[in-house]
Structures are given as C-alpha cells and as structure tokens.
Design goal:
Layout: H1 2-27, H2 35-43, H3 52-56, H4 76-86, H5 88-108, E1 114-120, E2 131-139, H6 141-212, H7 217-251, H8 274-284, H9 286-307, E3 313-321, E4 327-335, H10 344-409, H11 414-449
Antiparallel strand pairs: 1-2, 2-3, 3-4
Helix pairs in contact: 4-6, 5-6, 6-7, 6-9, 6-11, 8-10, 9-10, 10-11
C-alpha cells in the first residue's frame, strides 16, 4: 500500500508539472497574420498570368479545367473558371470551409484526463500533520460517443464542401451572365454611338440648309430633338457598358481599370427535354446533394440525442491523507440516472429538425422542377423570336445599304435613307437584346439543372 501511495504522489506531481509546462508553452504563441497584408493582396487584383496553371489544374464537381491564354479573348468557360479561382468572396468561403476539416479532427480526439488536488492545513488538535488529497479522473462517455462524433463531423464536412462547390458553381454562372451583359451593352453602346454621330451630322446639315432657306424651322427642330435623344441614349448605353465591365471585374477579383477581351458565347442546344433535365438535376445539383448530406448529419444528431438518454459515466482514482496520517486510496465512479429528464427535449428537437430538413428537400425539388419547365419554355420562345428577328435584320441591312447609295446619287432623300438605316439599327439592337436574354435564360437553366448544357454550333449575328 505504501508503494502504491508513493506512486500516486509521484504521478500527481508529474501531471501538475506537465500542466504547468503546457500553460507556459501556450503563452509562447506566434503573432497572427497581418490583416493589411491580406487586404493589400486582394486589392492588387488577380494576375491572369498566374492563374494559367491553376485554371488548367482545376478540380471541381461540375466545372472543367480550361486552357487560359491572357493574350486572347476569354471564352465563357474561361470567365467562369476565373471567377472560381479569383473571386474574393469565394476565397473567404474556402477559408471558412476549413473549419469543418478542423471539426473532424476535433471529433476524433479523445478528451484528456483531469487531475485535482486539495490540502487541509491543521490549525489545532492532537493530530501531528496536515491532510491532502489527489484525484485523477476520465470521462468515459466520450469514448462511447466517439464513433457518432466522428461520423457526424464527416457528414457536416461533406455538406460544407458541397455547399462550397455549389457556391462556386453559382459564382461561375454569375460570371457567365455578366460576361454576356458586357458583350450586349458593348454592342448597344456601339449602335447608339453610330446613331448619335449620324443624327448630329444630320442636324448640322439641316442647320446649313435652313440658313440657305432650303429647309423649314420645324424640320430643324425635329432633327435637333432627334439628335438630343440619340445623345442621351448613347450616354446611357455607355454608362451601362461601363457598369457591366466594372461588375465583371469585381466578380473576377480584377482591378477596376482592367480591360477584358471576351469571346462570343456559344449558343446552347434546342429543343430541350424538361423531364430529362429534371431527372439529371436530382442527382447532379450540388445544393441538393448538400441537403442530403445535411439530412445524414441530422440522422447522426438524432442517434446522438437518443444515446445521451442513457447514463453518462466517469471514472476517477483517488488518494488522500488526513491530519492523523491515515492514508486511503480508491476508485470512483459517477453516472447520470435517467429518471425524469431522459434527454427527451434534445431528442424531440433533433427529430423535428430532421423532419424540417426532409420538407426543405421536397420543397427544393418541387421548385427545381417548376423552374426547369419554365426556363425550357422561355428558351424555346426566345430562340424562335431571335430566328424571326434575324431573318428581318439581313434584308433591312441590305435595304439600308441600297438607300445610302441612292441618297448619295440624289435618287432618295437623305431623311428617308436615315430612317431606313435607323430601322435596321433598331432591329440589330433588338437582336442583341435577344442574345442577352438567351444568355440569361441559359444561365438560369444551368443553375436549375446544376451542370453546363452542351453547346451547339454558333449562329452568326449581323
């Protein structure tokens, strides 16, 4: 017994010393990373040359790697990959996702033992010495629940990664949308600038003609109003173009003054089968997969809550010496008796949360089917309207060229030639707007189905 007491004393002293050394080591931590350094790196903007290798090595459940050439116009796929690699919000989201990895590590770790000590200082009495006690304890419930803790942390980790991949996919599609908006606003700004120059020239010609007495004042006023309207439209379209460029640069993590060259977006196939797309969406949409992972995680939480209704167990080893120098040693055991509480509240909450997740999943599926059906129908209508407008644009452009030639020969009035040319330009603007609508609808359908749609051969735009 004396040998055991000496061993317990030595072990207690050793544990106290280790705890003290650990506390001292915790004080010697390295300084945290600089906030300003991280901010300066983000404000400097992404370097396209440095993203060539990451773009070619991209690993994503939906997006494919691309060959990035900063010297050539960026395709829609390249813009999408750049958004995933360089968007500041996605970088922050990836940093936050590492918390789930750390939680998996935490769940697999067993708790450290606890030690305790106390002393009784003799103030008076016949006993010759002071009393002291030491205790070493361990929580056995953590060993029992370790399997569920690890499984739950891994399902949460899978959910977080799927949510992150869905966020990346949504950001990539937003980049495609903004790229299409940039191209549309650039085309509209170019047409508006041509109209502004022509109406300004027509106004100058009308002023000269009126000064010679060849044109009435009402005609000059009409041309002046047309020139003012054209100037306003040119200013507004230029403002829209600049805003679209700024939005795209911000989403791609580029400096505001970056000038990107964009390649035309490839049209998507038509017709599309809404039922087939919905069937594919049920298996490939990352947010639906994340919801299923969340449901699995909640199932683990329900099992954990049910298990917590059973008694929790803790073990300890105690050694004590009283003031009369009587020495004792013995084990200790403590457990919770499930008499009244029985963890019924947490069990009910866990099951209710699981039922809510099931309802959320069903609602998401229902909305997905509705969105896909509506988008497929809207795409078919818009493509038919574009085909009709395209058939109208080509003869109008030919008529505008013939009218210009006739006006230069004096066979047609300048105002009539300008009216024909403006009609052709309005149809071109309508065609650009339809192209933008097709891009927006395609992006919406790809988000609804959870994967890119296959491309078809491009159709030229006059």
């Amino acid at each position: 017994m004396a040998f055991l007491n000496d061993r317990l004393k030595s072990l207690t002293v050793l544990l106290v010393g280790v705890a003290a050394l650990a506390g001292l080591a915790a004080c010697a931590t390295s300084p945290p990373p600089s906030l300003d350094q991280a901010a300066d790196e983000t404000l400097a903007g992404a370097d396209l040359a440095r993203l060539v290798a990451p773009a070619a090595a991209l690993r994503h459940p939906v997006l494919k790697p691309v060959v990035l050439d900063p010297a050539r116009p960026l395709t829609s796929d390249a813009v999408a990959v750049l958004a995933v690699l360089a968007n500041p919000d996605l970088k922050a989201a990836r940093a936050r996702a590492k918390i789930a990895d750390a939680q998996v590590l935490t769940a697999g770790l067993l708790p450290d033992p606890t030690i305790g000590g106390s002393t009784d200082l003799r103030l008076s009495g016949p006993d010759p010495g002071n009393g002291w006690a030491a205790q070493i304890g361990y929580e056995l419930t953590a060993i029992r629940d370790r399997d569920l803790a690890v499984k739950g942390a891994k399902t949460v980790q899978r959910q977080v990664r799927l949510d992150l991949a869905w966020q990346e996919w949504a950001m990539a599609e937003q980049a495609r949308l903004l790229a299409g908006r940039v191209q549309a606003t650039e085309g509209l700004a170019l047409l508006a600038e041509r109209t502004r120059r022509e109406t300004a020239g027509a106004l100058a010609h009308a002023v000269q003609a009126a000064a010679r007495g060849d044109l009435k004042a009402d005609d000059v006023t009409a041309r002046r109003l047309a020139a003012l309207d054209a100037a306003d439209r040119a200013t507004q379209t230029a403002r829209d173009r600049d805003q679209a460029r700024s939005d795209l640069n911000a989403l791609l993590g580029l400096r505001p003054d970056t000038a990107l060259q964009l390649a035309p977006a490839a049209p998507r196939p038509s017709p599309l089968d809404a039922a087939a797309l919905f069937a594919a969406a049920r298996t490939q949409r990352l947010d639906l997969r994340a919801l299923r992972a969340g449901y699995d995680s909640q199932n683990v939480a329900v099992r954990k809550a049910v298990r917590d209704a059973f008694p929790s167990l803790a073990f300890s080893l105690n050694q004590a010496t009283d003031t009369a120098n009587n020495r004792t040693v013995g084990p200790g055991l403590s457990l919770t008796l499930p008499l009244w509480n029985r963890n019924r509240g947490p069990v009910a909450e866990a099951r209710a949360t699981r039922d809510a997740l099931r309802a959320d999943y069903a609602a998401r599926l229902f909305q997905t089917r509705s969105d896909i059906a509506a988008l497929v129908q809207a795409l078919a209508r818009t493509e038919a309207q574009r085909a009709l407008t395209l058939r109208q644009v080509t003869p109008l452009l030919e008529s505008a060229g013939a009218a210009d030639a006739a006006a230069s020969r004096g066979d047609l009035s300048r105002s009539a030639a300008e009216a024909i040319r403006q009609s052709a330009r309005d149809k071109q603007a309508a065609l650009i707007a339809l192209d933008q609508s097709l891009v927006e609808l395609t992006v919406g359908l790809e988000l609804a189905t959870g994967a890119p749609l296959p491309s078809k051969p491009a159709v030229a735009t006059p």
